[in-house]
Design brief:
Length: about 500
């Protein structure tokens, strides 16, 4: 049953901040500054994965099999996700002890710097194993930085937002991940078209990475103008911040239980739905359906642009009807309809080509058979991806407000970041690698077997299973609270 009233809290009213008195102009400045930096960080993180098919042969050995270099690039892409929880613990601790603002200034600099350097790495043919080694180190740094970014941005905005509109205002932070993916795909597509395919594959792929340097300077300047969250500033001034955020987050039995519910009941399902619907769909169109990069980019960008307003819609709706029912509806839709929608993508893409049979013309001369490329149904494919993106917006739109309201100010940055980045990073981030690996294995099976016949989509069993498990746990254990007053020592009842 929905619990629209605030749960019981142990409050220290001396450090309470009345979010409802914050001016609208101040909130929008906070949202803009936080969102711009977060979009850039997601852009930095995504361009590697978006260019995996090209980067693989360049940095992992041009003489290797295409499948091996692609899997190698995806594995390194996934490595960045593995360390995100460690980044969440490290930077979450700093954010809860030192402050939100300065912590995500540091994460911005690390992320942007690592991305810029990636564009300067010599090829495998020139420096051998040093190339993939450098890539791995930079991806690990990016993962650590991103682990501290989201929690800081979500917490920072939420601690300014009015209690009754927290879902609405924090939903703008949720747009940033999709915005970063749209930006990365758009930059890659424009660069590719302007340079030509050969030049882009040879050296032009470096430009999207190098562009990050300019974006870093601009976003750092914008964030530098921010002030510390007033709620955290008051808590720090009165000495009520946590001396050991990690211990208080994970050793306190009540808070530890909430962290586990957040992970297994919400974020791991959100992670697989997000990366399946947006990143895996893009990889599937390029690597499996062999769709032209221009067409696949158009499909993804248009579908995501159409779906972007729904993040705000569902975030705002959660302020009125609660977070749980929206998140869980998106979760079960992702579990039930992802596979059919991918089959729809495959159907609308059509066969790679058709053979025009050999004939005889009117003069009796033989006309040989020819291969004729087919034109995919782009509007149909956009509709399929839009449905997938809609599930993302339902799960992701209200999730920042839900996680922020779950934990007290003294450990909010840490307690929120760790389950989010395990669910999003470990479970969600490995969707492309696991799904592609299962597909490669299935394609190698004997002809006529179920695995062989469905090899292109068999990998989806992984995200669908995770989403279903998360739905069951979330329905059983997740409490539906909203409009919670954020005060320093709040602690929901277990």
């Amino acid at each position: 049953m929905e619990q629209s009233l605030n749960p019981p809290y142990v409050a220290d009213t001396a450090v309470a901040h009345d979010n409802n008195t914050t001016s609208t102009s101040t909130i929008w400045k906070v949202i803009t500054a936080s969102s711009v930096g977060t979009v850039i960080e997601w852009y930095d993180f995504y361009i590697f994965g978006s260019l995996a098919a090209i980067i693989g042969p360049v940095l992992f050995g041009s003489k290797g099999k295409i499948e091996d270099t692609l899997l190698g690039a995806l594995a390194v892409f996934g490595a960045g996700f593995v360390v995100r929880p460690f980044g969440a613990m490290f930077f979450g601790r700093l954010g809860d002890m030192i402050g939100r603002k300065y912590t995500f200034l540091v994460t911005l600099l690390i992320m942007g710097g690592a991305t810029f350097i990636t564009g300067l790495i010599p090829s495998y043919d020139k420096i051998g194993l040093a190339a993939p080694a450098i890539v791995v180190v930079l991806r690990l740094l990016q993962g650590l930085a991103l682990g501290g970014e989201y929690g800081g941005a979500a917490t920072y905005v939420a601690e300014y937002a009015p209690d009754a509109k927290r879902g609405y205002f924090t939903s703008f932070i949720q747009i940033t991940a999709t915005g970063g993916l749209i930006l990365s795909i758009s930059v890659i597509l424009i660069t590719r078209k302007l340079m030509g395919e050969d030049a882009f594959k040879e050296w032009g792929w470096r430009i999207p990475f190098l562009l990050s340097g300019f974006l870093l300077v601009a976003s750092y300047y914008i964030r530098r103008q921010l002030h510390e969250s007033p709620l955290f500033a008051k808590a720090k001034a009165t000495g009520t911040t946590s001396k050991s955020p990690l211990r208080d987050s994970f050793m306190n039995p009540v808070n530890r239980r909430l962290v586990l519910i957040a992970l297994f009941g919400v974020t791991m399902g959100q992670g697989v739905i997000f990366y399946t619907s947006q990143f895996q769909a893009f990889t599937f169109m390029n690597a499996t359906l062999k769709l032209d990069i221009v067409n696949s980019s158009i499909v993804m960008v248009v579908a995501m642009l159409l779906g972007t307003p729904l993040f705000v819609y569902f975030g705002s709706l959660s302020d009125r009807i609660g977070r749980k029912r929206i998140i869980m509806t998106g979760m079960i839709c992702g579990a039930l309809f992802t596979v059919p929608l991918f089959y729809g993508l495959k159907a609308f893409a059509g066969p790679l080509s058709e053979i025009t049979p050999a004939t005889v013309d009117a003069a009796g001369k033989a006309v040989p058979a020819v291969m004729k490329a087919l034109t995919p149904n782009i509007p149909g494919m956009i509709a399929m991806v839009f449905c997938l993106v809609t599930f993302v917006t339902m799960v992701y739109g209200p999730i920042a407000a839900y996680l922020v309201e779950l934990f007290p100010t003294s450990v909010r940055y840490t307690s929120l970041s760790v389950p989010y980045h395990i669910g999003n990073g470990v479970f969600g981030g490995f969707v492309p690698l696991i799904a592609t690996s299962i597909g490669v294995w299935a394609a190698a099976q004997p002809a006529g077997t179920f695995a062989k016949e469905h090899s292109s989509l068999l990998g989806l069993v992984y995200p669908v299973t995770i989403a279903l498990i998360c739905f069951i746990i979330g329905m059983a254990l997740m409490k539906d609270v909203r409009n919670v007053k954020l005060i320093d020592e709040q602690q929901p009842a277990a």
